[in-house]
């Protein structure tokens, strides 16, 4: 027989640790709400016929957040045989709130009291027998971190699942409400076939839209239920949601005071003391800046950069390619195959894999910050700044890391639990000039703006402005519209991060990127290699005679309004998709240099001939803002988890880059005496459009049809 | 009407009623901020918003705009 056991609990209650302990798998665990967005499943260790499902952490079975809806639909529709409700005993009142709702589903349930060591340390005493009696379900003490009690818990859950003993709702509600709920329940029982009448009675009473949808009762029946609800609300002088929530918490308060002996509070816990310093009014920002600097310094400029430089220059520069080349030559393989393997595969994928060590260092830091509880404080400290333009306080970290490399930056956005904020951060992170864009900036600044000090800083300024403008524009579009996400966030207690958890986390994130490099980036690199190495007769040629050059000539007119409609500039831009610094080397190849310095000093004279200052600046801006390199696109795809959203992100970035570059070039031309032309008009129109998008009213979300009139309170 | 937003740092208060509607209001209630519950305002973020409160023995961060929906004594 196949048995399904669902793990349900609040965010940050030790659910994923429990999942790992039960399945022996290595899911990542963070000390911070919202790590599990999708449900995960695994086989119970030693029992191939028992499946464990890790549901997203939720505070309630309300219908408002994605996590809640996912968990709820799973419980009601997929019918697990047993639920294990994991309760953080150091925060028992709020955790039991979900418990009261779970009991109403009727699914057999066992309660795992987790983190009891913290409670014991505090000196509180939990009477487990009494608690079990009051809750009407089995209660077991566990420590997921130390894997204590987990095996027994699983055994008991299996026994319970086989016995199919249904859970019973707690007697929470006062007489009048119980009566109303009973009436609603009897209506549900006659009019629908649901297996969860207790649950739905309360949900209909609360006017839960998802529940109304699922039961799909006729209008007359709904009107009857509404009438019952309204008369009860009038009698209680409160709305139904408030009544239900308050009574739940009151019941929990009684249970807790009867079953738990709390030691009189002894002042500040160690966590309080840390927090007092770390989020102190005056010290918080300096400490935050110091931590961020340290993280950036170590992972991007020192350790990470050394390892990455070594990987790029030595491992994928001096060791692997010559070795492979020697091997291929000794085998006598065809020249095109050598080129495919060396330039296409090793060159392309190697350039991307070079970032892996840097990412591992960074992920190690992020894992420590998350696990110890500081990440939630980052959001607390920075929220005010980023909320203004539709991002989250946690967006700061991806953006900061993005100055080193967009890839880990984009992947760092995973710490943002709100989906909308996360998507927006992913879309804007690569606007910040990463280290690979620096050679491009150096090339343009050196060739066309010699001695100028403003070009390089302006790249950062434009990046930051692009993020702010995009934040405001995107926030007002349909895809991102709707009520602002409530920023009501638990600040978990600090604790020393566990080495195992941190390493698992680092490895999981790094691994997923390497996998991506092996697929999307691999294919993309081969494609660009093919286009730049062959002509239409499929003969191997230099880049300037290749298909890519021919395509460049076709596409080039697109860039005429931007001032750089030459095929060389077009091809350089396209090859920038492999890695942004490739823009420089492509110019080198196209202008006939075999080897160029990092800032392309040899190319300066040619570039001065090919570009005007305005066109060069426009080229720079376009290359800074447009679609990032394949590695970053791969990261976007990894984090968005959808091809559609990846296209939207890259499309938006490119369109935005085009608009800004056009405005800069055309207005520059106009103000330097180029006269008023179609281009100027287009630029003015685009500015008008941008201003409209910036200042218009946000698109309002289409209101869901409300079946039950909401009572005014 | 006094709201949680007006409560000073280091002061305790009791919730009277919740205003507003939809997901935010429900979220506030789900987190344990219901009628009659004691709330302690621990601190204000360094940039002035959000605030950190203690409710039911745990720490919660809430924006001032949302705190305005919580009527207190």
From TrEMBL, chain A:
GO CC terms, sorted: plasma membrane
The entry's keywords: Cell inner membrane, Cell membrane, GTP-binding, Ion transport, Iron, Iron transport, Magnesium, Membrane, Metal-binding, Nucleotide-binding, Transmembrane, Transmembrane helix, Transport
Q: Where in the cell is it found?
A: Cell inner membrane; Cell membrane
The entry lists its GO molecular-function terms as:
ferrous iron transmembrane transporter activity; GTP binding; metal ion binding
Q: Which top-level group of life is the source organism from?
A: Bacteria
Domain FeoB-type G, residue spans? 2-163
Query: What broad class describes the main subcellular location of this protein?
Result: membrane
Chain segments annotated as transmembrane: 282-307, 344-369, 424-448, 454-474, 513-534, 546-564, 571-594, 614-633, 645-668, 674-695
Q: Name one Pfam family in it.
A: FeoB_C
Where does the secretion signal sit in this chain? none
Gene3D superfamilies named among the record's database cross-references: 1.10.287.1770, P-loop containing nucleotide triphosphate hydrolases
Which residues participate in GTP binding? 9-16, 34-38, 54-57, 114-117
- Provide the binding site for Mg(2+): 20-21, 23-24
CDD domains in UniProt: FeoB (cd01879)
SUPFAM superfamilies cross-referenced by the UniProt entry: P-loop containing nucleoside triphosphate hydrolases
> Record keywords: Transcription regulation included?
no
Q: How does it sit in the membrane?
A: Multi-pass membrane protein
| Function comment | Probable transporter of a GTP-driven Fe(2+) uptake system.
Family in the record: Belongs to the TRAFAC class TrmE-Era-EngA-EngB-Septin-like GTPase superfamily. FeoB GTPase (TC 9.A.8) family.
Would you tell me the protein name for this molecule? Answer: Ferrous iron transport protein B
The source organism is: Acetobacterium wieringae
TrEMBL record, chain B:
Q: Name one GO molecular function term.
A: transition metal ion binding
Q: Which stretches make up the Ferrous iron transporter FeoA-like domain?
A: 2-73
A Pfam match is: FeoA
Under the heading InterPro entries, the entry gives:
Fe-transptr_FeoA-like, FeoA, FeoA_core_dom, Transcriptional_repressor_C
- Domain of life, per UniProt, equals Bacteria
Q: Which UniProt keywords apply?
A: Iron
Is the keyword Lipid biosynthesis assigned to this protein? no
Which SUPFAM superfamilies does the protein's record reference?
C-terminal domain of transcriptional repressors
Protein name per UniProt: FeoA domain-containing protein
Task: Give the originating organism.
Answer: Acetobacterium wieringae
Q: What lineage does the source organism belong to? A: Bacteria, Bacillati, Bacillota, Clostridia, Eubacteriales
């Amino acid at each position: 027989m196949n048995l399904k056991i669902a793990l349900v609990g609040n965010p940050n209650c030790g659910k994923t640790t429990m999942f790992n302990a039960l399945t022996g798998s290595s899911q990542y665990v963070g000390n911070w709400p919202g790590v599990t967005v999708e449900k995960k499943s695994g086989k119970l260790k030693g029992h191939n016929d028992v499946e464990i499902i890790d549901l997203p952490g939720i505070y309630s079975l309300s219908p408002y957040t994605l996590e809640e809806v996912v968990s709820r639909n799973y419980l009601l529709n997929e019918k697990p045989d047993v639920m294990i409700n994991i309760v953080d005993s150091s925060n028992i009142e709020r955790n039991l709130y979900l418990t009261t709702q779970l009991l109403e589903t009727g699914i057999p349930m066992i309660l795992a009291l987790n983190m009891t060591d913290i409670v014991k340390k505090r000196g509180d005493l939990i009477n487990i027998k009494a608690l079990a009696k009051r809750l009407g379900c089995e209660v077991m003490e566990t420590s997921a971190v130390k894997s204590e009690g987990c095996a027994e818990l699983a055994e008991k859950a299996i026994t319970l699942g086989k016995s199919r003993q249904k859970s019973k709702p707690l007697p929470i509600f006062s007489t009048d409400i119980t009566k109303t709920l009973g009436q609603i329940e009897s209506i549900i029982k006659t009019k629908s076939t649901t297996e969860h009448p207790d649950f739905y009675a309360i949900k209909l009473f609360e006017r839960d839209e998802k529940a109304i949808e699922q039961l799909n009762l006729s209008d007359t029946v709904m009107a009857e239920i509404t009438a019952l609800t309204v008369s009860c609300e009038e009698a209680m002088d409160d709305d139904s949601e408030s009544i239900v929530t308050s009574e739940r918490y009151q019941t929990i308060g009684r249970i807790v005071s009867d079953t738990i002996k709390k030691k009189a509070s002894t002042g500040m816990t160690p966590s309080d003391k840390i927090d007092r310093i770390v989020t102190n009014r005056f010290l918080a920002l300096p400490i935050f800046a110091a931590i961020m600097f340290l993280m950036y310094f170590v992972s991007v400029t020192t350790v990470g950069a050394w390892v990455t430089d070594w990987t790029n220059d030595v491992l994928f520069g001096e060791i692997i390619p010559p070795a492979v080349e020697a091997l291929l030559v000794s085998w006598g393989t065809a020249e095109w195959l050598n080129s495919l393997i060396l330039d296409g595969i090793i060159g392309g994928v190697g350039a991307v894999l070079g970032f892996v060590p840097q990412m591992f260092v960074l992920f190690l830091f992020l894992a420590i910050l998350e696990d110890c509880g500081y990440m939630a404080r980052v959001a607390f400290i920075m929220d005010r700044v980023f909320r203004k333009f539709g991002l989250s306080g946690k967006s700061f970290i991806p953006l900061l890391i993005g100055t080193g490399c967009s890839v880990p930056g984009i992947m760092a956005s995973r710490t943002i639990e709100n989906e909308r904020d996360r998507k927006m951060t992913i879309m804007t992170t690569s606007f910040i000039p990463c280290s690979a864009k620096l050679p491009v900036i150096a090339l343009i600044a050196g060739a066309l703006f010699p001695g100028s000090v403003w070009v390089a800083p302006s790249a950062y300024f434009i990046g930051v402005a692009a993020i702010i403008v995009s934040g405001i524009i995107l926030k007002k579009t349909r895809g991102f519209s709707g009520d602002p996400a409530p920023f009501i966030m638990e600040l978990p207690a600090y604790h020393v991060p566990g080495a195992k958890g941190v390493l698992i986390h680092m490895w999981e994130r790094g691994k997923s990127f390497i996998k991506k490099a092996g697929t999307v980036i691999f294919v993309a690199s081969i494609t660009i290699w093919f286009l730049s190495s062959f002509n239409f007769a499929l003969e191997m040629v230099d880049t300037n005679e290749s298909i890519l050059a021919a395509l460049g000539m076709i596409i080039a007119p697109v860039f005429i309004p931007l001032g750089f409609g030459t095929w060389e500039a077009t091809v350089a831009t396209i090859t920038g998709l492999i890695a942004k610094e490739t823009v420089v080397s492509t110019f080198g190849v196209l202008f006939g240099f075999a080897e160029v310095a990092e800032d392309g000093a040899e190319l300066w004279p040619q570039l001065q001939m090919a570009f005007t200052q305005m066109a060069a600046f426009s080229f720079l801006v376009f290359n800074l803002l447009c679609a990032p390199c394949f590695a970053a696109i791969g990261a976007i795809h990894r984090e968005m988890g959808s091809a559609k959203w990846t296209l939207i992100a890259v499309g938006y970035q490119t369109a935005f880059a085009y608009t800004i570059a056009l405005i800069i070039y055309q207005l520059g031309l106009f103000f330097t005496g180029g006269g008023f032309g179609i281009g100027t008009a287009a630029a003015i129109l685009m500015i008008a459009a941008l201003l409209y998008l910036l200042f218009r009213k946000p698109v309002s979300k289409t209101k869901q049809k409300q079946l039950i009139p909401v009572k005014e309170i | 009407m006094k709201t949680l937003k007006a409560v000073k740092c280091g002061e305790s208060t009791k919730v009277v009623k919740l205003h507003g509607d939809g997901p935010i209001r429900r979220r506030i209630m789900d987190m344990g901020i219901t009628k009659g519950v004691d709330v302690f305002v621990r601190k204000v973020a360094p940039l002035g918003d959000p605030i950190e409160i203690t409710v039911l023995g745990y720490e919660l961060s809430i924006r001032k705009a949302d705190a305005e929906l919580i009527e207190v004594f």
